[in-house]
Specification:
With 376 residues, the chain is α/β, with parallel strands linked by helices. It has helices at 11-22, 34-53, 67-80, 97-108, 127-134, 156-165, 185-188, 214-225, 233-271, 298-305, 326-330, 335-339, 352-373, and strands at 61-64, 87-92, 112-117, 140-144, 169-173, 192-196, 207-211, 276-277, 288-292, 341-345. It is 45% helix and 13% strand. The longest helix is centred in the C-terminal third of the chain and has 39 residues, at 233-271.
Length: 376
Amino acid sequence: MDHHATTPVDPRVADVVLDAMVNVFGNANSVDHTHGEAALELVERATAEVADLIGSDVAGVRFTSGSTESIRLSVGHAIATRRDRVLRVAATTVEHQAVLDAIRIGIRSGLAEVFWIEVDAEANIRPESLQAALREKVDLVCVMGANNEVGTIYPVEQIARDVHLAGAKLLVDGTQAVGRVDLRVIDWGLDYLAFSSHKMYGPKGVGALVVSNAAMHSEITEHVLGHDGTLNVPGIAGFGEACRLMGAEGPGDEGRIRACRDRLEARLVQDLPDIVVNGSRGNRLAHNLHLSVPGMPNDAVIARLRNKVAVSTGAACSSGAQTPSHVLKAMGLSEDMQEGAIRIGLGKWTTQDDVDRAAAEIVAAVREVGRSMRGI
C-alpha cells in the first residue's frame, strides 16, 4: 500500500534487465564491435519506448539516474543559459523536495530567486497566484504533473500555454504522473519533463529528462555536464520496457486500481467516522488515498501496522523525519490534521482481498492508538 515511494518490478521488465546484463553486456559508447552495437540498439529501442509514452521526439530524451538528477539538470541548464542575470523561478508551494532543493541550491549560490505559487485546501494551484508570478517576468516555472502526497492532478496543458505566453519555460515533475496522466511533450511544448523508472514497475536508479528539442539536449551536455558517461544499459532497457507496458496496459490498470482505492476509502470512512480524505477527491491519481484522523499521531498508527501494511506519513525522501509535511502546511491543514495524516498508494497487483485486509488492519491500529491515548 505504498506504491508512491516505489513499485515492484514487473517480471517482464526484470527479464529484459537480466538479458541485457548477461547477454548484451557491451558498452553502448563502444560501437567498434558488435557487443557495443547490440547495447546501443537496446538503448535506441528504449529511447523510442520512453518517447512514445510521453509524446516526445527521441532526440529530446536524456537518460539519468532518476527524477532528482533530471530536475537538477533542468534547473542547472536554465541557470547556465540565463547569463545576464539571476534565474527568476516560480514554483508551487507543494513541489517535491527534489525541486525545492534544486531551487535552493541556486538561491544559495546567488544564481536564482524564487516566487511562490500558492495552492488551495485541495492542493489545486490558485490561478491568481500563478498569474501574479508570471507578471514578475519569471524565466522558469516548476509545476508537478500530480502531487506526490495527496495525488491532486494539475492542468499541465493549460499551464504550459500560460507559461509560454509569458515568455517563460516550464519544468514538469512527472514522477508520479507519467503513464497515469496524459503528458505530451511536443504537443504541449513541455520544456523539461522529469520522471523515474521505479514509479512505473521498472528498475530503480534510472529515469529520464525529456526536453522539448535536440538543441536543449546538447546544451545540457555542454553547459551543465561537460561529458556524457557510460550508459546504464540494463536499467535503460528495463525502463523502456516499463514505459511500453505502461502505455499498453496503464489505462486498463487505472480503472481497476481506482475501484480498489474507492473500496478501501469507503471501508475506512465507514469504520472510522472521524477520518478525513485530503486533496481533490474528483481530480486525483487513481492509486492515491491520503487520509487524516485528526489528533491521531500517524507515527503511532504506522508503528502498529509495521510488518502488516506498508503505508507512509508522506514523501519517501522525508520518511522518518519528525517535521510536518510542507505540502499539508501549504494546503492550510490544521496541526491535528497534519499529525494524523497517512498516505496510501495502491498498485497494479493490489487485489480486493489486499484492500479488505489493509482496511481491517488500519482500523484496528487507529482504534488501538485511540484507546491508548485515552488510557483505556
